[in-house]
Specification:
By secondary structure, the chain is of the alpha+beta class. The protein has 4 helices and 5 strands; from the N terminus they run H-H-H-E-E-H-E-E-E. It has helices spanning about 5-10, 15-35, 40-70, 105; strands at about 80-85, 100, 130-135, 145, 160. A 5-stranded mixed sheet has the order 2-1-3-4-5, covered by helices on one side.
């Protein structure tokens, strides 16, 4: 027959201290992995990559329009960097000094089906705007599309000039 001490030695398992140590090590490793991966930075990088693609797409559409219009850019583009209207917004809404109407690019879908919208709009965007600004240099006539002053992440302004 087994006495009490022999019975206790036959029982297997972990002590509370051993379990707590394993949990603490797992928590430390998880913290290191989360810091190394940094999901906030990765998401911001992804949104900035989307902004870069959007800015290039808009600029390409403007230049395609100019090629078909004897080198003339859309008349609504001014020398001041101004936010563009979203596709589908009533043209009357886009006549203010705070928004530029570029329906000439989207009306037939020939140049672009719809103007891209910043990944974080409507945050810091005009309610009818798409989050990107466009301007024409008075001296060189070059077009610049940017997100400057609207949705800038990681202090990175996305801007393309041609």
């Amino acid at each position: 027959m087994l006495n009490f001490r022999q019975t206790k030695k036959l029982q297997g398992g972990f002590t509370l201290l051993e379990v707590l140590l394993v949990v603490a090590v797992i928590a430390i490793l998880a913290g290191i992995v989360i810091i190394a991966i940094n999901p906030g930075k990765n998401l911001a990088d992804t949104r900035n990559a989307q902004r870069q693609a959007d800015v290039t797409t808009i600029l390409n559409a403007v230049y395609q329009y100019a090629l078909d219009s004897s080198g003339n850019f859309p008349a609504s583009i001014t020398n001041a960097a101004t936010e563009m209207c979203k596709t589908g917004v009533a043209p009357a809404t886009c006549t203010s000094a705070s928004l530029i109407d570029l329906t000439v690019l989207t009306s037939s879908g020939k140049y672009i089906a719809s103007l891209p919208i910043d990944p974080q709009c409507p945050t810091n965007c005009n309610a009818s705007g798409n989050g990107y600004k466009i301007s024409k240099d008075a001296t060189t006539g070059r077009i610049t599309v940017t997100n400057q002053g609207i949705n800038v992440e990681q202090s990175k302004t996305i801007s393309v000039t041609r």
